[in-house]
Amino acid sequence: MVKSAVLGYPRVGVNRSAKKAIESYWAGNTSAEQLQETAKNIRKERWESIKNAGVDVVPSGDFTLYDHLLDHSFNFGVIPQRYVEQKLSPLDTYFAMGRGRQDRAKGIDVVASEMGKFFDSNYHIVKVDHSPSTEFSLKNNQQLNEYKEAKELGITTRPVLFGPITYLSLVRAGRDAPADFEPISLLDKLIPVYKQLLTELKEAGVEEVQIDEPILVLDKAEQQGDLFKKTYEALAPVAPKITITTAYGRVGKSIEFLKDLPIYALHLDLDREPKQLDEVLAALKPTKIAIELGVVSGRNIWKNDLKASKALADKAIAELGADKVTVSTSSSLLHTPISIKVETKLTPQQVSWLSFATEKCEEVATLAGALNGKESEAFEQNSKDIAARREFERTSDSAVRDRVTAITEEQLKRKSPFPARREAQKKHLNLPKFPTTTIGSFPQTKEIRVARSKFTKGELSKEDYEKAMEKEVGSVVEFQEKVGLDLLVHGEPERNDMVQYFGEQLNGFIFTQLGWVQSYGSRYVRPPIVVSDVSRPSPMTVRWSSYAQSLTKLPMKGMLTGPVTILNWSFPRADVTKEIQSKQLALALRDEVVDLANAGIKAIQVDEPAIREGLPLRKADWDNYLTWAVDSFRLSTSGVEDDIQVHSHFCYSDFGDIFPSIQRLDADVISIEASKADLKLLDVFKSYGYSNEIGPGVYDIHSPRVPSEQEIKDRIASMVKVLPADLMVVNPDCGLKTRGWKETEESLANLVAAAKWARETYA
Ligand code: MET
Ligand SMILES: [Zn+2]
Questions:
Q1: pLDDT tens digit string along 307-333?
Q2: How far is the CA of 671 from the centre of ligand 2 (A)?
Q3: Distance from the CA of 592 to the CA of which of 12, 368, 434, 683 falls in 20 to 30 A?
Q4: Within its chain, how far is the Cα of 615 from the centroid?
């Protein structure tokens, strides 16, 4: 019999109950007991939803109040001293590790652990500091507790946990650890804790566990065969049946050692990498290892083509036999919203294309049923829906398709090289040395949000809403003139979100009302969905930028989100490559850039903060991605004359490894988040240099702290050591939308003063 499984499920709770409960606890409105009670109810709701969908193998232990990697550190007793010192309750210590905590009156002040992107997803893990002296002990067997909790409800589950090698690869080396320390060197100390955890599971009657080792899809795992062997040879004898999962990519050469591990089954991501199946089947055939086929995507929201998945599974059955095949999701479903059934504004046709977590559970169950010879209406319906979607896909926008096919090399290039453009821009913009500017947004005040929500609900007319936004733009412009900034922005008050705002004005996108996906902790986003060819029916930002420019003689910078970022922060369509979608977006933005220039805007910023996170996990795939990503940016910005200054902005990640590609974007000016990864970035500048203008962020906007004038001067001074002074721009490290006005005013006054000082000092 073929079985069905799911690797993990969203944590948000129906109606975002988890988010609300957690935030209410943080605000001091509910007790720890109340929060735990809610969490228990949500776990029940999750298990029942998966079980009711007909799934055989239901996960447990994957729920979390903040982040599941953080849970592991906490459960293993890895609590850095700075948290211990705060003398908080266990729950508050846990949250402090995730998000920091400050309560000056009580003498509490501790920063959060570092966050990092989880593989190439937009989910962020919490990376707790480890050092050579880190000790592990099993303080809390969450997997066991939740297994028992489900059992009491009559549901038998498969506990989920990170494997030791992935755990140690994802956590962080603390600041005080020696420079060459790598957490993986702690493996021998960690294995006994895993042994204990798994022994306890087995003794409690657990039959199988899911051990996530997604690190196996990275190049570096191919060198770690010995570590895997050692680890699993130690764990297998005491553990329930082990299934190792490998989401987000292909196992590649690692199959050579995986086939020799003493495990029950190996899971593959066949959504991303269906081609790996043959090779893996051939390797597993002579062994006892079973296979778990991750055919239903945990990453996108498209209805699975069950016939195609069945064909893959049939192959596996032919090779290994039905008893050794499980059909599953490609990864945890944490990257998808809970259910499509709560959406009321999508058309029935749109609904028929989509599948969120609950529907994906139904898909794996239906698929297993079909493989076991059960005819079902659901399977038939799926075939019809997929056929209808294919039909829709054929009705492409030929004008858009033709325009993409006709893209020329010329369109990817500005008219002249940077030095000539720079001269033209100097005359056109007339900026001083060390020009000051900001990244775009200004504080999104309560008034702005209230006006927007009234407008969305129909309580405020379009005219009145736009008037309110114009008033906001007016005061942002006035403030910038007063504080003495050189290159102004309109402040972006009219934008709900830097991607959604554009998606809503472009053809080809749809939006959910409740399609929340976890970004980190209690923060959830609703990614737009690309459903068809993308085009721009009319200008999107010109009226705002022109209005702002009409209020001042100083130059106004237009502000757009770049093609790669729009795509990376949306759910892309699955029938067309990302490259094509990105180029369609680029062409739409290209028209916008040209329209802005024609409207008299002399500087235009096209933000690409998400360009790094789209980078493929395997180095062999980098070139292809970077080529189309860079081309897309260039396509969107090269339609204008030399005297238009093109800016771009990067933040959120470590750009060191793609810095040469950032140079290839050939933006006239880039701003880059530097304040948190200060030294690393300076090294990058030192080794690669940068030929165009550059504004490494001079202060961190992610905290309400006001940087002193001296701090900013010091920062400029350290950067001038590695970058030419006459190419330096002075700006914060990201947009100011999450900040309050008071700290913004003080910080920018200090920034302007420091830039004046730099002008004199480096004249
Ligand atoms: C995440 S990058 C944000 C850039 C945008 N222009 C802003 O200032 O908010
Ligand atoms: Zn930013």
A1: 999 999 999 999 999 999 999 999 999
A2: 9
A3: 434
A4: 12
Cα four-point dihedral sign 66, 71, 73, 75: positive
Which residues are annotated binding-site positions for L-methionine?
439-441, 492, 607
pLDDT, one tens digit per residue, over 428-464 is 999 999 999 999 999 999 999 999 999 999 999 999 9
For the chain, how many residues are written? 763
pTM: 0.94
Active site residue 702: yes
ipTM of this predicted complex?
Answer: 0.99
d(CA 268, CA 99): 33
Q: Is 434 left (phi over 0), alpha (psi -120 to 50) or beta?
A: left
Angle formed at CA 565 by CA 563 and CA 571, multiple of 5 degrees: 95
- For the stretch 246-288, pLDDT in tens is 999 999 999 999 999 999 999 999 999 999 999 999 999 999 9
In this structure, the residue with its CA closest to atom 7 of ligand 1 is 735
**Active-site option among 335, 428, 647, 702:** 702
**Beta strands per DSSP E along 132-222:** 157-162, 172-173, 208-212
Going from the N-terminus, what domains does the chain have, and what CATH number goes with each?
3-98+110-395 (3.20.20.210), 417-510+536-762 (3.20.20.210)
Q: For residues 205-221, give the mean pLDDT.
A: 98
Q: How far apart are CA 628 and CA 639, in angstroms?
A: 17
